Amino acid sequence: MNFKEELTEYPILSSVLEASEGLGEQVYLIGGFVRDLILKRPSKDIDIVTVGSGIALAERVAALLGPQVQVHIFKNFGTAQIKQGDLELEFVGARRESYQSDSRKPAVEDGSLQDDQNRRDFTINAMGISLNKKDFGELVDPFDGLRDLRKRIIRTPLEPGITFSDDPLRMMRAIRFATQLNFDIEPDTFEAIMAMKDRISIVSMERISDELNKIILAKTPSYGFKLLYHSGLLGIIFPEMIELQGVENIEGKGHKDNFYHTLQVLDNVSETTDDLWLRWAAILHDIAKPATKKFDKKVGWTFHNHEEVGARMVPTIFRRMKLPLNEKMRFVKKLVRLHLRPIVLTKDNITDAAMRRLLVEAGEDIEDLMKLCRADITSKNPLKVKKYVQNFDLVEQKLKDLEERDKLRNFQPVITGAQIMEAFGLKPTREVGEIKEAVREAILEGLIPNELEPAYAYMLKIGAEMGIKPIA
Ligand code: ATP
Ligand code: MG
């Protein structure tokens, strides 16, 4: 199998060929780039392996490309990198690895191309393409990765138990590639993941979450979560999610399986957004349902306050999973907390005040919140679905009208704390906060418009009621 033709798309490789000639070393394209070339998924990362020094090869290539080209050397790893336009070339010497049981960091020594291919995670990631004169473009595929690509299968090159035991992160990677590429995991490989799952504990949470986030960003993330669930990995890395699974029956009444519901919501929202954090909000929107579940003889299963309890679980989960604790986390928390509010707004005789409150609380995130709510419709009854969708259409229209009228998105009452202190000659005390809050409430309730004069007058009135006199 020869890929000379396909490689003409990357003229820079002729410089690599020339450099390999000059050094008299054997040089190959390797890994994800080869896989993606065959799958016709254009990729910007080009991994190149040489049976020799990766750094020396990179320097030679750079010299051929011209004086302006820089080589970034990573001495500790023995690798070097060249950036050309939007391409990133990574050069590494072929190596052989051996592992100790307590670490996923192998002892490394120089090796042959075959050694290097042996240490790779999956057959589809272990293919090489020659960049040497004698057989330029020729596929070097000792594990028949090509067949697995065609059969759409993830399989380890060596015995899967050893592969996963050596580096347990590969278990996450197997599921990640299966999800990204929509491939199956070959049965022996999957069984080895089930058997080795506990070894994931030697992998840092950051690396695990990196892979998990790639799964979440795939086209159909539910597939990855199902693989994680059935392999047993999900229970180790994300136990809260396992709790969602299952249906309890009392007196003939069941509730929906919140695990599969959540996955459906995640897939739904993924059709409307590539935003990782909105997808995370979908994953976590019902996370407190198990903790709040009760059976009521009259109404059946209830999950009172699960949105609030769930919101409070978000920081804990983010901290453990080493996800950011910044505004991304606060966004997810907010969406979890608010995810039922638009549904309340679909009820009849909803006041403008309730609408205004939601707009103020959601602020810039109102569109994302509505996306989440629409994704949350997973009823199998098309009539119900239609009704829910229409309800949300209506809510969205009302929100829009209100927003146009009141500009509530970045709502700040016109009266500030400083103005209150000045008007009444107060120090920063509880009273100041109370007056401020009262003015804010009056505006949101629509008692007064958000304009200086009426708000100021209202402030004086509240002050009078509290027995506080303005200074003349
Ligand atoms: P992508 O860049 O889309 O995530 P990739 O296959 O290029 O996919 P990288 O993480 O960039 O993945 O790794 C490049 C190559 O290095 C892989 O194709 C694989 O051959 C090898 N590799 C990476 N991580 C491991 C690992 N943990 N164990 C074995 N081989 C690995
Ligand atoms: Mg890569």
UniProtKB/TrEMBL annotation:
InterPro entries: HD/PDEase_dom, HD_domain, HDIG_dom, NT_sf, PolA_pol_head_dom, PolyA_RNA-bd, tRNA_CCA-adding_enzyme. The keyword ATP-binding applies. Residues 27-155 form the Poly A polymerase head domain. Transmembrane segments: none annotated. Gene3D superfamilies: Beta Polymerase, domain 2 (3.30.460.10), cca-adding enzyme, domain 2 (1.10.3090.10). Residues 182-241 form the tRNA nucleotidyltransferase/poly(A) polymerase RNA and SrmB- binding domain. Residues 259-376 form the HD domain. GO terms for biological process: RNA repair; tRNA processing. One of its GO terms (molecular function) is RNA binding. Belongs to the tRNA nucleotidyltransferase/poly(A) polymerase family. This is Putative nucleotidyltransferase with HDIG domain.
